[in-house]
Amino acid sequence: MKKKLNITSWFVVSAVGLLVIAIVLGCGLFDRLSAAQNLIGGLSPAFTAERVAGARAGINTLSAAVDTVDPIITEEGGASAEVGKLVNFVADNTGLAPGAVVNALNENYPKTTNLLLALPLSEVSSELPELVAFLSENLKLTPDQVMGALQENFPNLTQVIVNLPKATSGWNQVPGIKNLTRFNGDNVSTVPQVRNYFSKDVIPVLESQHANYHSLAAYKGVSYLALLLLLVGVIAAVYGVLVMIVGTATNWDAFFLTATWSIVVVVGVIVLALVFGLNLHDRLNSGQQVLDAAAPAFTAERVAGDVAAIDMVDTVVKTFDPTITQTSGAAAEVPKLVGFLATSLNVSQATVLQVLADNFPHTLHLLLALPLSEVNAEIAGSGGDPGLVQFLASVLKLPPDAVVKALQDSFPNIYQAIANLPAVVNNWNNVAGAENLTRFDGTEVKTVPQVTAYFKADVIPALAAQQANFQSSNVWPRLTVFAPLVTIIGIVVIVFGLLMLPLVRWLSRD
Fold it and tell me: Does 346 score more than 70 pLDDT?
């Protein structure tokens, strides 16, 4: 009877070991934790504190750019329809003719006036093919040769010419975006919706899960946990069998039983030491929170949609990058282009401007509005000159606050554009809050084009590259199961061993 009890008790030890082995192999922990380790490594550059903060700063400036451009880029944006209404509003409240209002605005705020008259920018896109055809015919060049000459002599303006039609045509229906949705299921098809998706869904995962990610990544990650658990299981299973064999041969003497059951207790203590020493409860809980929060971003539809979405953002940024400041290049090329055309066509510069005004008015107004930083300076006021609001207040004989409210209430789309323009101009070449942001390779990120490149070449490819690892990691059972389960196994082993020790003397008697 005692011999049978000894064998049974050691069979329990082996069974516990086999249970641990079954958990490791049955739950696919080697593949799962290896995938989790690859996921940790692949996403680690994006989860540094500097990059999380920089990503938010970058998306905030991009968001301001979207809010600036959205009202003015297409007719649906609404600003173009408000221009005539604004002129008539000033005319009605001053007694001036609408033409006189435009002349007064153009005299005092020429950049701003030209930008308003250029709207919507989709009209510029419509004129550009005709402009190239006109130049081709009059310069006796093919359209490709015209574009080649423009690229060689006016690369910044050419960048605008090439990208603006893509930006205007894709603004309200981003090409290739297909089945992309917000995390809440809302459709994403326009550039503002793309902005909302990145700003309100993707970046918040980095922000909210930053601490949880680093908790999971501590102690060199998790891939070795499967091997540790397997070793514990194998040791317990083999140890139980060996003790049964050796114990039978030694007739289960007291010393032998005391020693062997003491080792069982030690093994249980080691298991608990691993669980608490590696902080598995908090780390695996944190890991599951990361998986839960990030799961919507790793669906096949969103990973594919991310690529099309960021490509469109890149196109928009390339469109406007040359136009923002004087040093961006496009503004400085405008008088050179007029001079080049005058020389090539053998006419005066005034004639060139008149031909452009007659045939391509939106394009000419946009050229004369550059750079947008000067539009911003006119609106804000500079060099002692009053800003646009102060000017309107004086001619309308209204307080500035009343003018602002009138703009907000009656011309909300124009107001949206001018209200967001300062954030774009001031941050375009030096994004506030992104002082420590770098690309994954360590390259400095300061400007909006560099921020876009960071998202396009680093963050989005990292998501795509880790999609398979994420799906392999985020399967049943949840990570939160394993730490309590192993803790229970360790406690059971210790309690079982401690209970068996007092029985050693009785079990060792003849």
Answer: yes
* Phi, psi for 187 (deg, rounded to 5): -65, 145
Task: Give the chain's largest Cα–Cα span.
Answer: 123
Assign 258 a pLDDT band (cuts: 50, 70, 90). confident
- How far is it, in rounded angstroms, from Cα 49 to Cα 498? 47
Residue 371: how many CB atoms within 10 A of its CB?
22
Q: Which amino acid is at 137?
A: E
Tokens for 108, please give them: 């005092």
Cβ atoms of 449 and 439 closer than 8 Å: no
Residue 297: closest CA among 197, 209, 214:
197
Range from 93-97, 242-246, 310-314 carrying the lowest mean pLDDT? 242-246
Residue 1 has pLDDT above 60, yes or no: no
pTM of the model: 0.93
Phi first, then psi: what are they for 172, rounded to 5°? -95, 0
d(CA 328, CA 298): 37
Residue 9 has pLDDT above 90, yes or no: no
DSSP per residue over 302-319, as a string?
Answer: HHHHHHHHHHHHHHHHHH
The rounded distance, in Å, linking the Cα atoms of 34 and 491 is 27
CA-nearest of 269, 221, 225, 241 to 20 is 225
Buried b (16+ CB within 10 A) or exposed e, 188-217: bebbbbbbbbbbebbbebbeebbebbbbbb
* Residues forming a β-bridge with 181: 187
For the segment 469-491, the average pLDDT, to the nearest whole number, is 94
By the 8 A CB rule, do 451 and 58 touch? yes
Give the whole-angstrom CA distance, residue 126 versus residue 132.
Answer: 11
